[in-house]
């Protein structure tokens, strides 16, 4: 599968997850993470588009609301798992230069 498509869908899902958690928690930390995830999604949108973007976004938005309602411990576990996998994906599939390096650095700051 195309690595740009996987990254696009991953960032669409991460944006949905961040938005869902932000809807429940309303903290500046989650607002900043949402803004960063949205900028990552927009970066990959410039490279590739897919009809799966919005279904992925809305599915993870719903999941993010549920995770947010389950409490801080669950939020921490989910975010740490998702961000670890995202960083591993970028390291394995992209050269760590330019915008990709910025994305990886921002992903590291999302750990709770």
Summarize the amount of helix as a percent range: over 70%
Estimated structural class: mainly alpha
Rg calc: 13 Å
**Total count of domains:** 1
Largest sheet: none
Output the number of helix runs.
5
Round the mean pLDDT to the nearest integer and report it: 93
Contiguous runs where pLDDT drops below 50 for at least 5 residues: none
Give the overall shape, derived from the CA principal axes. Answer: globular
* SS elements, strand count: 0
Strand content range: under 5%
Order of helices and strands: HHHHH
Give the N-to-C terminal Cα separation: 30 Å
Can you walk me through this structure?
The structure is a single chain. With 112 residues, this protein is an all-alpha fold. It has one domain (3-110). It is 83% helix and 0% strand. The longest helix is centred in the first third of the chain and has 23 residues, at 3-25. The radius of gyration is 13 Å and the shape is globular. The chain crosses the membrane at residues 54-71. Keywords: Membrane, Transmembrane, Transmembrane helix.
Descriptive terms for the model:
single chain, 112 residues, mainly alpha, 83% helix, transmembrane, transmembrane helix
Write the layout of secondary structure elements.
Blueprint (H helix, E strand, L loop, with lengths): L2 H23 L2 H18 L7 H18 L1 H22 L4 H12 L3
Keywords: Membrane, Transmembrane, Transmembrane helix
